[in-house]
Amino acid sequence: MNRKTLVLPAVIGLLAPVLTACGGSDSGSDGGDAIVVGTTDRFTASKDAPAPLDPAYAYDVGTWNILRQTVQTLMIQPRGEGDPVPEAAQKCGFTDNGNERYACTLRDGLKFADGDPVTASDVKYSIDRARSLKADSGVFALLSTIDTVETQGERDVIFHLKTADATFPYKLSTPVAGIVDPDDYPKNKLRDGFDLEGSGPYTLKADVENDELVRAEFTRNPDYKGNLKVNNDKIDMVSFKDADAMGEALDKGDIDLMTRTMSPEQIRKLSGDADTGVDLVEMPGLEIRYLGFNTDAPAVESKAVRQAMAQVVNRSELVSKVYGSQAEPLYSLVPASVTGHSNSFFNKYGDANVTKARSLLNQANITTPVKLTLHYTTDHYGPATKKEFEVLRDQLNSSGLFDVGIKGTPWDTFRPAEKKGEYDVYGMGWFPDFPDADNFLAPFLDRDNTLGSPYDNSQIRSTLIPESRREADRLSASSSLTDIQDIVASDVPVLPLWQGKQYVAARDDITGTAYALNSASTLQLWELGRGVSG
């Protein structure tokens, strides 16, 4: 058959998938051989990160995509996007008018994979454990609005919040709120290595070599009770060293599907080739890329330096040279399709302008050229990252205002160094924990932020973030959200660059690919099945 591309149209803040090709059908069949999924995500246990799969520690899209298959949460983001729906819970909801008391009732008969019952006390233990461990990944900050967790009987859990938080149901859908068995997860320390048990749709067998997970075998959990329909019995996820190796495996039939991260060249090739037996699925995404700053570092502690960089960087040129139609320039931390987005950086700086940047530096008595190193990770955000930083370097240096070098480092070294403040300027990506503007702002700007950033704006933390969370109607929160984005554009603790689409490539007998990823890049392996090649 001819290769078919599925383009899924977006609506404001939501996805509306349309199934139009055999590779995107929902008519998967149960059973059969394992479906093999390729990824370039690397999963390493190291001295700095010995517990990569502990829900109280894990905080990147790769490890979360393992946890979401295995560790159940009270709530889950629905198949077609929208507000979270009950998963391990039978029902959940706010029980007061102020969005400060949230109650859930567990489904009857829930079991962990080893047969132990799942109770309300297990939920409380799991949440309290993540909050008390305060892992240096910063993931516990998602639970920061919780004051206390109360249980009533075996199935009822009540969350008392410190302040109103309309986004709390979303937070209960993230893996940090995953329910773990107290017998397997110690209260006062993280669980090292790759052992993982839960009550989710699959159990995990980890194939580990040299402290690195190379293959994750997901087997359907016969005792699973939840909101999800599981369309297969077994999925094998294989980690590849790079996109080329993953693509070769798909071509040879060693894998059935490849996901993040494909190279721009692979996507262009699949978009143009016919009769390959492979379907490419393109869908809107909420992935963003940005530069982060250690605002205490002498080279960039002056706001004028960061503002000058914002004035020089040409996002349109960057996207055109590196990603083409696969990405779009971004002028805020909040993507354009998310309610509450404001083009704050464009409103303040307009198009790239060296003259304006020079004026900013002169007014602050900054000696030029400003010498900087831009740090990036070589193996986490895809093979185009190096080229992206070469373009950024050249843009800054051609202005005559900067003397910039670039340095690439593997993720397992890069991330700990960034958290320790060892980099003045560094490149990062963000895949949202949930599709709400709050999750593109608070993780970078609030206390205990995921970057370990020293930047502290009291108006954002004490007034604007709490104000925005009081509004159950997220459109009503736009005023507070816009104010936050405007402050970020002025102070530039981070510099947004672009937002990207997302892709899956699969052999044409694989069904359910239209739902293999949601807008937050959550991998939904339960959607995949085998059908008849069309």
Provide keyphrases for this structure.
single chain; 534 residues; alpha+beta; 13-stranded mixed beta sheet; disordered N terminus
Any overview of this molecule?
By secondary structure, the protein is an alpha+beta fold. Helices cover 25% and strands 24% of the residues. The chain is built from 14 helices and 23 strands. β18, α10 (385-398) and β19 (402-409) form a beta-alpha-beta unit. α6 (303-312) packs antiparallel against α9, α7 runs antiparallel to α10 and α13 (458-469) runs antiparallel to α14. 51% of the residues are buried. The model is unreliable at 1-31 (pLDDT under 50).
Walk me through the topology.
Elements: E1 5-7, E2 10-11, E3 14-15, E4 35-39, E5 43-44, H1 61-70, E6 75-76, E7 85-86, E8 89-94, E9 101-106, H2 120-133, E10 146-152, E11 156-161, H3 168-171, E12 202-209, E13 212-220, E14 234-239, H4 243-252, E15 257-258, H5 264-272, E16 278-293, H6 303-312, H7 315-322, E17 327-329, H8 344-349, H9 354-363, E18 370-377, H10 385-398, E19 402-409, H11 411-419, E20 425-430, H12 442-445, H13 458-469, H14 478-491, E21 494-507, E22 510-511, E23 529-530
Parallel strand pairs: 1-16, 4-14, 4-15, 18-19, 18-20
Antiparallel strand pairs: 2-3, 5-13, 6-7, 8-9, 9-11, 10-11, 12-13, 13-14, 15-21, 16-20, 16-21, 17-21, 22-23
Helix pairs in contact: 6-9, 7-10, 13-14
